[in-house]
Each structure stands twice: as structure tokens, then as C-alpha cells.
Amino acid sequence: MKDIAEGFRRFTTEVFPAQAALFERLATTHQPSTLFIGCSDSRVVPELVTQSDPGELFVIRTAGNLVPPCAPGAGADGVAASIEYAVTVLGVTSVIVCGHSGCGAMTALSSDGDLAALPAVAAWLRHGAAARARSDAGDFPAAEDEVAALVRDNVLCQLANLRTHPAVVRALARNEVTLHGWVYDIASGSVEEFETGGGRLLTPAG
Ligand SMILES: [Zn+2]
Fold this sequence. Notes:
The protein has a six-stranded mixed beta sheet with strand order 2-1-3-4-5-6, with helices on one face. It folds into two domains: 29 residues, no CATH class; 172 residues, Carbonic anhydrase (Beta-carbonic Anhydrase, Chain A). α4 runs parallel beside α9. The chain is built from nine helices and six strands. The two termini are 34 Å apart. It is α/β, with parallel strands linked by helices. A hairpin with a 6-residue loop joins β4 and β5. The structure holds zinc ion (ZN). The site of zinc ion (ZN) has 7 residues, from α5. GO terms for molecular function: carbonate dehydratase activity; zinc ion binding. Its cofactor is Zn(2+).
């Protein structure tokens, strides 16, 4: 915690003054162009990997970058509320769902481990069941390959869940927003972008 407090002190005394004009503008303006939905994993930092400034990304981070499908009447849902606000009020023009290599949530989902002591995790991972079903259809020589495939399938499944949210449905119908699926590789720093049914590399690996 001491390091965190020291970091905040350095931000206030060194970083903030150096970008005073940016923060002065941001004090009264909030117009992010992109909703970035990523994993809570500490190694996946949206602003770092996209080289974005404060004010450019509206971010939702959940374990496994899972996006529960729209469930009217299910009660308060922070993910649904954030999606609705970003798309309808802030008017973001792109939404990125970003998975990543070595994802703990996807590893747990893939391994059928005992989650009896983690009931909240077990309940949350049910939102990855469709991705698990897709990956189960594959044939993988190693457990790491299975997790990597699940990470990719999960991004596509969460994009499908995203399309169940009315705000997204409306924005797509008006061509006001585009959806993107990414997988970030921690070891190489590369990002792979997926279209439904296929994929292509945004940046070369290595
Ligand atoms: Zn993760």
C-alpha cells in the first residue's frame, strides 16, 4: 500500500502538472470514443496496451472479460448499466471485448477444478459456459492449447452476449457503433483481432 500511496503522490506532484491542459479539459468533458471490456487481470492494462490518454476509453473490467447477456428483471447489473450508459449517453462508436493469454478465469473454466470454496466465482463463470461448449468440440494436444482456444471462443461468445443488450442492438441498427474482438498476448505484446468466423493479426507476434 505504501508504494501505491507514493505513486499517487508522484502523480499529483509530477505527472498532473505536466499534463495540466489535458486534465483541465477533462474536468468538464467526458467524450470517450471506445468502450473497452477487458479482464480484471492486473497484467492487462487497457490504457497501456492501446496507448490511450485519460478520457479516451470507457472501461469495464470483469473476471474473464465476461459480459452477462441482457436479463431484464434480474436486478441491479453493473455491467449492463455501464454498457447502456457508454453506448446511449456517451455515444461510444466502438466496443472492444479483449481476452488475454494465461487468463485465470478461462483456466478455471477449462480445468473443471473444484470451486466449492469460491461460490461467487463458480456462479460468475457460468457466463462462460457457451464458450466452454464451443472449445469442448475441439481436439487439443496440450492443456495450454485448450485454454488458448477457450480464450478466443470466449471473446466471440461475449460479443454475442453484448448483442443482446438493447442499447447495443439500437446502436448497431443505426450503424452508430462497431464491435471488435481482441486477444492480447502477454508474452509477446501482440494483439489479435477476431471477426466472427475467423481472425487476423493486428500486430505481428514477437
Ligand atoms: Zn483474465
